Amino acid sequence: MAAGDCDVPFSVQSITKVFTLTLALGKIGDRLWQRVGREPSGNPFNSIVQLELEKGVPRNPFINAGAIAVTDAILSGHEPREALGEILRFLQFLAEDPTIAIDQAVAASEKRTGFRNVALANFMKSYGVLENPVDFTLGVYFHHCAIAMSCRQLAMAGRYLAHNGRNPSTGLLVISPERARRINAIMLTCGHYDGSGDFAYRVGLPGKSGVGGGILAIAPGQASIAVWSPGLDAAGNSHLGRLSLERLTKRMGWSIFGN
Which residues pair with 238 in a beta bridge? Predict the structure, then answer.
């Protein structure tokens, strides 16, 4: 089901972090957790303060520092172009749509203005958290955050998280049920930055937001849901997107905490 501007592509930004986390876990498994934590940050998504206190290890894979570390894990052993191509092909595969592409203008803007991300990456490099040249890792990071997708494509891509790691179209496993459950858990606790607790309280679903105004939410066993409304709240999450998901979960009884 779909409504509104469901086929209009937009910059999904941090929502791609769900899919890069999936890829990185597939590559190096639980060794990833030696380089990034699994706890809520309680700070803005681009904060450097916590990173300094915790010796360069990011709190979770969904804040900027954590996603840069995850990107570095995907990049290891590859050229940047190869790693970026792998991320893009993975999204095209999940969404069953080869037209999904990177918005090059957005990627160039990210690189031109991403001074805080450069600082985060260099700080992690100084502690040995990043293995690859900072410029290579950031290049892949800026470009995968600039991937443009519609709500329909995004909801399709997230289906494996709603179905125990399995693609419902083919019946084939994308990831193990255990890993899907754990990614959903991190989405619930960390997917909306410092607004994650409020999102869990009001919506009651695992979700991941992006500053482009999108939210991917997962109703386990039921549905993958994507919404898009560019107006952001103080924590950097879509205000109307959260309201619409709150109404949907109430009406459908989909909250993981009960009706």
Answer: 232
